[in-house]
Structures are given as C-alpha cells and as structure tokens.
C-alpha cells in the first residue's frame, strides 16, 4: 500500500522535528549538568568559607580572652610589687 504524498511529507517532517527535539534535549541536558557542577562547586566553596569563618571567630574569641587575661595580670603587677622594697 502506497502512502499519499502529503502523509509521507508529514511523517518526514515529524521525524525531522523529533530529531531536532532530541538534539535540543541533549544540549539542554549537557547545560544542566554543567550548571549542576557549578552549583556543587559553589556549595563546596561556601562550606569551606563557613569553616574558615568559624575558625576566625574562634581565634578572635581566643585572642580576646588572652588579651583580657594579659590586662588582668598587668593590672595585678603593682599590687604584687607593693610588698617588695628595692634597694638602690
């Protein structure tokens, strides 16, 4: 059975559209994978930055504590030295 010319042309056009759509989907999938990889990299960078920020916060608190202790010890020096007499 022979198909009418219009039907054959319609089938050929549908096949072309199908192939075109498949190619577009393949390109989009590739683009999506690239974007997913970029998002993953950014998430890892953000995680690393948060770790660094936490380390900075801890070190800042540690320095502050040490500075306060140093000030307390320095303030206590005159009291400790009151009991000593220095001979010149």
UniProtKB/TrEMBL annotation:
Residues 1-30 are annotated as: Disordered. It comes from the Eukaryota. The keyword Coiled coil applies. Residues 32-62 form a coiled coil. Residues 21-30 have a biased composition (Polar residues). Keywords: Coiled coil. This is Uncharacterized protein. It comes from Brassica carinata (Ethiopian mustard). The lineage of its organism: Eukaryota, Viridiplantae, Streptophyta, Embryophyta, Tracheophyta.
